Amino acid sequence: MAVANHQRNVADCRDGIRLCDHSQLTQAEAGEASVAERQRNIVDCKDGVGSCDRSKLTPSEAGEVNVTRHELNVSDCKNGTGLCDRSKLTGSETSEVTAAEHQRNAQNCENGWDECDHSKLTPLETSQTAAADHKRNFAECKNGQETCDYSKLTTPETKILADAEQQRNYTACRKGYGYCDRSRLTPSEAKAIPSEHRPLP
Q1: Which domain range does residue 65 map to?
Q2: Tens digits of per-residue pLDDT, 4-15?
Q3: Which of 20, 21, 120, 200 could form a cystine bridge with 12, CB 3.0-4.6 A?
Q4: Does residue 199 register a pLDDT over 80?
Q5: Is 163 part of any domain?
Q6: Neighbours of 12 (CB within 10 A)
Q7: 69-82 pLDDT, tens per residue?
């Protein structure tokens, strides 16, 4: 039990667990725990999380941390995530971030996603977004989704959907499976319905 308790304490000290009792460590174990704590602090400072203590960093470690934090800030600004601090960007980085934001907005608009600002689109992007919206609406109508707006369909598209629905209805009536509206059958289609699938007199 004593051996197990000691090993657990060593692991707690190495992993930064609060229950760690440094007084029970040997000199070698204390050294390992100190190295692990130092590495953990460097990682926390680079990630901007945890209990980062910059006072424990060497000048070279502080330099690495600054470079990493700057790169993460640039990434956050470009991706529109995390904590972006534009005041820390260089002139070229600001231009890159602005371009990334514009591209992200254009993609959001074209895909019909939230956070789309149509006023920031170029004429070409506006045209591409309109085409994507029209294509998406036609697919929704074709699939019978409630989000379909039939008023936005072209005459040929409306005919395509009407023909497809006519064929679906005829197949349902002929096979006796699925929703069948016999009032929409043509005379020739009505005659082709098997007798067992016709309504009772």
Answers
A1: 1-73
A2: 888 887 888 877
A3: 20
A4: no
A5: yes
A6: 15
A7: 999 999 999 998 87
Average pLDDT of span 158-178: 90
CA atoms within 13 A on the CB side of 179: 3
Query: Residue 48: phi, psi to the nearest 5?
Result: 70, 25
Is residue 41 assigned to a domain?
yes
Residue 147 burial (CB < 10 Å; 0-12/13-18/19+)? Answer: exposed
| pTM over 0.85, yes/no | no
What is the reported pLDDT for 67? 95
Residue the block writes with tokens 């930064």: 16
Domain end, chosen from 18, 46, 73, is at 73
Residue 89 CB contacts under 8 Å (≥ 6 apart), including other chains: 73, 74, 77, 97
* pLDDT for the residue 196: 66
What is the per-residue pLDDT for 51? 81
**Number of structural domains the chain divides into:** 3
Residues 154 and 141: beta-carbon distance below 8 Å:
no
Contact 85, 74 (CB under 8 A): no
Contact predicate 123/142, CB 8 Å: no
